[in-house]
Amino acid sequence: MRLTDRRFALLLMAPAAAFLALFVAYPLLRLVYDSFFRISPVAGGPREFVGLANYAAAFASEAFMGAGWRTLVYTLVVVTAEFALGLAMALVFAALGRRAQVFRTVFLYPLMIAPIVAGLLWKFLMIDNFGLLGALLAQAGILSDPNQIGWLSDPGIVLYSVAIPDVWLTTSFMCLVLFAGLQNVPGDLLEAARLDGARPTVLLFRIILPLLRPVIAVALVVRGIDAARAFDTILIQTNGGPQSASEVMSLLVYRTMVRFGDPGLASAMGTVYLVAMLAVAVVALATIWRPGKDT
Amino acid sequence: MLSSHRALKRTLLAGAAVTAIALTSCGVGGPTSDPNSKSVTVLVEAGGHAELTPIAEQCEKDTGIKTTFVELPYEGLFNRLTSEFSSGQVSFDVAAVDSVWLPNVKDAVQPLDDLFTDEAKKDIFPALVAEAKPDGHFVGMPVWTNAEVLFYRKDLFEDPANKAAFKDRYGYDLAAPTTWEQYQDAAEFFTKDGMFGTDVKGGVETEWLAHVLQAGSPGVVLDKDGKVIIDNEAHREALDFYVGLAKSAPSGAAQVDWAAAQNLFYQGKTAMTRFWAHAYRQIPADSPVAGKVGVAPMIGGEAGVAGIPGPWYLSVPKATKNAENAKAFVKCAFDHNDLAIGSKLGLAARVSAYEKFQDQAGYESFGPLVETLSARATATRPATDKWQQIVDTVLVPMLQKAVAGGDSATLLAEAKAKVEDIVNP
Amino acid sequence: MTLAPSLRRTEAGPTRKAAAGVVRRASRTAEAGGLEARRRGTRVILWTALAAALVLYGFPFLYLILTSFKTPSETIAVPPTLLPTTWTLENYAGALGRPGVLASFVNSLQTAVVSTLLSLVLAVPAAYAVTRFKTPAGSVFVLASLVTRMVPPVAVGLPLASMLGSVGLADTPVGLAIAHTTVSLPLSIWLMCSFLDAVPRDLEEAALVDGCSRLGALWKVVIPVVSGGVSVTAIFAFLASWNEFLFALLLTAVRSQTTPVVIANFQTQFGLDWGPMTALAAVYSIPVVLLTLFLQRRIVAGMTLGAVKG
User: Fold this and answer.
1) Residues of A in contact with B87 (CB under 8 A)
2) Best residue in A50, A61, A126, A129 to probe B by mutation, most B CBs within 10 Å?
3) Which is more confident, A4 or A68?
4) What percent of chain C stands above pLDDT 70?
5) Which of A67-76, B326-335, B382-391, C238-247 has the lowest mean pLDDT?
6) Average pLDDT for chain A
7) Per the CATH hierarchy, to which homologous superfamily does domain A44-290 belong?
8) Residue B154 and residue B271 share a domain
9) Residue A249: which residues within 8 A CB-CB, separation 6 or more?
10) Residues of chain B contacting residue C273, judged by C-beta atoms under 8 Å apart
């Protein structure tokens, strides 16, 4: 008997679908389920149904609300910085044309580096006393003392400092995607605008950016989601400190679960975090990818 | 296109070969926890690894038990212990456990009561005997213990010009400080010429707690009945003293932790540091301070000298199938405790082991260490399974706020409320 | 219109061309376009800006490498030095000589290879099904797999750890590879959909007429044509696993610890292990940095297509 196309398609998708169901969906269901219990950190220990108590505790805790807020700020900072720098670099590369092609490769290398290594690297540059960044700025006369800025020790700025490795790692991604988008901006359109006497800023804001809109949207969403899940770079730089000023949601959930031995509360926090991320993702998918219909 | 096709084929072939290897093995570097073979897997932190290596060699000779060490970083070790205990699957037979973790792991490890003979108990510092028994059973055998002592630059303290200037300014002779006031004076005095008198460690809490004991508090953070006493007079005095040293210390105190403080001292940037005794034997030969360092007991307050012992214990998880060999190893490690002194960390747990070495050259730190550990006011941290959370979410953030200029009474009152929330949810 | 094609439409231009292996032509058309700076003065300024950006961008890694050749004390000297005063391999000896370090390289490689193969085996047929038979189930499937990409790993990690433990995969490269595949599979599906979409349908139709089965047509005709895309997908799946940290931290202990975890392990309670840590970080990163140089065109193609990284 010949399979119908539809059955054949289902058969081909089934293994991947089963994999995702088993190793993503099922663990997530367990997470949600666990969030309604108070759970002993030792296996075989008591397990007590507590209803929504873990959620109440999460929302009442300063740490949770703070981490949510910091995750949002961190994400916005990272994405904005990457977009601005990435767009600037993409425009520079486009303006310099083929001869700059080789350098695009150099620009690419941080993308290949493990985030844990990038975090380590920048910690080494920014750490108090033996960090190179402060020493260089002091030598250049910008700072009066190498330790004037406590990059990683001043709770007021640490959230921005820990974002630097993330920006360094993935600006190239933004640059590449935008550069690829720039390739599709029709040359004659720009030519015509130029002949009409449009200045570069007008070209950028009136023609280039609107044409890049879909590409920008995809890039921002993808990067935003990654930034909101940041863990490695911050863990190795500050472990969330000082004064929890760089503790983002992933770190908080991890610490609550593993270090403070409260799997129930951590599951509740993780569930809220998950739901928030999925909500953003669904909204993003709906608004960005749907209008693609007419193009 | 064609060339890429060929490249892919090559890649796939190579990939298939590697996969064949990958699938036939189950990872590298691991132990085989076969109960019939005489071997144990021991989970350790870097320091513990150094300590236990000579012991393990001796134990293999004595008992035939082979030891595989799994080394994890300090925080990673605790996280690994809790996550394995919570999953019920353990990958080790013995773990070296920091004393503050004992309350968290006590239900998941086996009693070791039969190893604590009267003779053994006599040879262990009393604070440790009490700490090893959080709930009626001994759950860990001390393997080494540490405490903070005073490190100072002998060359600077013995310099005649410094001596004269100090006497002139403070009216008494310059010597290794024994009290808070003397420490403050010396710290202030040596903060000159690009150097600092001391460090202030805003990233770790134990040192402040030692000062709390020196000020005469009946306990640190919690008293023996579990009541929160973090706002008592001793805590406040200790906090004021601790933070007051900031003017004689490098900036960026908020993130200064043990590693940073140790580095500042080794680099010759600080004239004094209160630090764990093991560091004396670790001063690198190429350090600018090599050969110039003196050690004295921890400074004292109203209640005299006091320190927080930093012992580590060997524990055997209930879930291991290899308990017999594991216990034999723990016993053997205690019997040969003095071998650890020759290691890189160079610490032991038995009083007799320290006494054996303290008069030998190169072990000058042992006398002050034993004196600090035996001091009347010396006490361990409270036995609560919430200790890690109290440290991470209350004590360290509070110290960081204090070094940034917060008011100590207000901060301690806030801290009290937070600790109460944690211990009685 | 189904969702899957509309997804690709958003970036239709670069997608299709890259898929056909003509990234270069794409850039040529644009460079002939109106974005190139013409005035000499502007070009000089832009080249200067580029040079400055490249120095800022390249320097951190260079400093890591330089530091790894310093003596352990100089590594953390106050004030820091830029160049090593004495060049030494001490840090490398210290790092590579530590127990477990070499084993961790093998574990990283095993995990990454298993995860890459698993991703490809699952993603290629699924992506083929989605692009060739535009069924509603296919659209739902692609959407679901994209949503998977939004899930924070920390939420999946611990439940997954106890699941893997209960089937005897705790602390094994295969267990970790499964966890890594949860990250790389959605990405691989997305990438493969884009590549397969660019393959003309007549090819398989001809094969079918020649008496190939549908699976045969996929294996013998479509996959060879799209092999460039498969290798791009493989590179990304490999990198995702090679660089991953959180799952590795949660799921591995003794037998399967990967190098990123070992690097983080150099932070000890009292330890001053910066020197060996920089050496190990350098050793671990150099292969992938070289990979960038050799495979840059593929990586660019995958990156612009898949909007990847992370």
Assistant:
1) 43
2) A129
3) A68
4) 85
5) B382-391
6) 87
7) MetI-like (1.10.3720.10)
8) yes
9) A67, A68, A70, A71, A228, A269, A273, C152
10) 46
CATH number of the domain residue B186 falls in: 3.40.190.10
Chain A residues touching residue C159 (CB < 8 angstroms)? 26-28, 30-31, 34
What is the pLDDT, as a whole number, of residue A150? 85
B90 is a domain residue: yes
- pLDDT > 90: what percent of chain C? 29
- C299 at interface of B, judged by CB pairs closer than 8 A: no
At residue C20, the pLDDT reads 39
- In terms of DSSP bridges, do strands B66-72 and B39-45 run parallel, antiparallel, or are they unpaired? parallel
Q: How many CB atoms lie under 10 A from the CB of residue B218? A: 14
* Chain-centre distance for alpha carbon C50: 26
Q: Which residues of C touch A24 (CB under 8 A)?
A: 148, 151, 156, 182
Q: DSSP letter for C163, please.
A: H
Report how many Cβ contacts below 8 Å link chain B to chain C. Answer: 153
How many residues are recorded in chain C?
Answer: 310
How much of chain C is helix, strand and coil, in % rounded to 5? 75, 0, 25
Q: Do C267 and B11 lie within an 8 Å CB cutoff?
A: no
Alpha-carbon distance A80 to nearest alpha carbon in chain B (angstroms): 28
| B72-124 pLDDT, tens digit each | 777 778 878 887 887 777 888 999 999 988 988 888 999 999 999 999 999 99
How far is the alpha carbon of A278 from chain B, nearest alpha carbon, in Å? 27
Cβ contact A124:C68 at 8 Å = no
- Interchain CB contact of C86 with B (< 8 Å): no
Q: Do C77 and B88 touch (CB under 8 A)?
A: no
pLDDT digits (tens, 9 = 90+) for C196-251: 888 888 877 887 777 778 888 888 888 888 888 898 899 889 999 999 999 998 88
* Amino acid, single-letter form, for residue B106: K
A43 in contact with B, Cβ within 8 Å: yes
Residues 93-122 of A with CB under 8 A from B: none
- Min CA distance, A63 vs chain B (Å)? 9
Note whether B138 and B217 are same-domain residues. no
Q: What is the CA radius of gyration of chain B?
A: 24
Which residue ranges form the domains of chain C, and what is each CATH number?
A: 100-258 (1.10.3720.10)
- Amino acid, single-letter form, for residue C189: I
